[in-house]
Request: fold
Amino acid sequence: MAVPFSVIAKKLKIEGPRLRRALRHLEIKGLDPKADFFKKEVAQEIIQALLPKKKAPIKVKKMEGEKKTKKDKEEVLLPSSVRVKDLAGLLKIPVTDLLKKLLKEGVSANLNQSLDFETASLIAEDFGKKVGLLEDEAKEEEEVVERGEPRPPIVVILGHVDHGKTSLLDYIRKTKVAQRESGGITQHIGSYQAEIDSEGERRQITFIDTPGHEAFSKLRSLGAKVTDLAVLVVAADDGVKPQTVEAIDHAKSAGIPIVVAVNKIDKKGADPEKVKKELAENGLLPEEWGGTTPLVEISAKTGKNIDELLELIVLTADLSDIQARYEGMGEGVVIESHIERGKGSVASIICRQGQFKKGDIVVAGGAWGRIKRIENERKEVKEKLLPSEPALVFGFKSLPRPGSKVRVVKGEKEAKDRAEAWEREMRERGFAQSLYSKVRGEKILPIVLKADVQGSLESLMSSLEKLKSDKVKVKVVHSGVGNISESDIYLALASSALILGFRVKSDLAAQRLAEQRQVKILTFDVIYDLLNELEKILADISAPKEKEVKTGEAEVIKLFKGGKVQILGAQLKKSLIKVGDKVKIFRDNKAIGMGEVKSLKILTKDKKEIKEIGAKFGLGLESKTTVKIGDRIVAFAIEKKI
Ligand code: GDP
Reply:
């Protein structure tokens, strides 16, 4: 029985022309890429080959404005953790008032102490504010993909120095960027869009204009997702080199597919087969060898097979199902920024969702502003910026940092709040916070490992792999021989990693950057010391955190006797109260003191616990706070939480 082409396309949810292109790249016995019907076995193989691999679940984010907001309350956005003095600033109240309030709630805190979101929001609400959670922009989390239409892929070019990254970008820019009447590119905007004709369909690819993994990881170091795909350039006459391996690690840590361009095949001494072997040894098995890495042999000098490379990029991107919402408020990434005389701060950005328009209020990290003008690479004014399009944006009040997320917000107030919160968080972000990432409930400690020689690197790697606590896993995101460089710091930043050095030093620039961005570097001369320290860190990360949980509640209905232990009449309102319970005393919904349950009685009979809701009972309460009728006695327990 033959299976029609259209049925396969439907099953794979791929449009016809794209499926056609995909078929051309498949090596399946008996497959005619131009056929309209396929044998059942062939069809099954096609589907198996092209069915997107298991992907992270797509989270649909609530659109802003979806939640109804009360007009009468001012909204403050709080990060997941906030220092006392910063919270006072956010709530616009004197710090002393906040400290008093906290004490009343039974929290004795100092100025620099961090409060969790729950505590901070309770306090904020008591001060008449409406509270929202500020997203943690610092970690590159699974991107919130909003379904929409396919958008062009955003591509970065990586590879060893002198392997031809710049030449490739130049060649594509010269030959594939639409030349309109006004001429070609007249200004650098950090990235450009190439246009290709793929089986009668015009397709765009956005290239980040600065090649190399140093620039790439710098972009990623603030946590924004920047690119969808990496082209790894490897010179056919030189093969896989240390920076090629670094580049592979960077792309893998970003979780993006890699397309390999074996370059300089025009050169004498080019040996693409040797390159493929070396790639396979480094975890990139070419498709033609039964692996999953798309590979094409090119020359950035003569232009040979560049069309094929571009086609392969589009095809690989199609299989990753890159989509974006085309309407609504824009979200993107700042690629570069600079001050232009007379025009102020200028940022080159790439849009990833929605639209950016003149007049929009935007915030990017700690910088914000109103968009005064959007310009393309030909210095033409653009009305709006759509997904995957790059442009220069004028109007920021200060310089946004490259790599920060940029987004359109509802108004100046939100922009200022977000910018301030971001600045605060950057100041505050410490070692403990950035030391591990949580993936599906499992804690992972990412590590960048540098050692003096290959031998010690290998023995360290195998010791590290064995080392894990029950709750935390160690994951080496990059390892290499040589001193700790800026590039290592950026990778550590991008993946929240700890840097371990064995018999190596840090470059001066790396040291400075690590201090600035609070990246933890630990160096050792003895393997035993390194493993010991790491074990301590793992134990520390897996130590349970304490959290208060409410276990019961009663209302004071009578006062019998004062003193160190007050004797009260009470009525049980919620769950259960036991002798020995630690309690908080609330008056008018505010905690006014703490205490402990010393005795419980029903009539004259001593009880260990009271659990019938509505029961009236006598309660002996040890507390410094004198209670009144109407006060609520809330029992709580400390729960350990991983
Ligand atoms: P990058 O450091 O990776 O950006 O490398 P470049 O693009 O600067 O290229 C390094 C050198 O290799 C330059 O002299 C280029 O002209 C040369 N080159 C780049 N691509 C090719 C190629 O395909 N064939 C030949 N023969 N030379 C190339």
About this structure: Residues 412-428 form the longest helix (17 residues). The first strand starts at residue 2 and ends at 4.
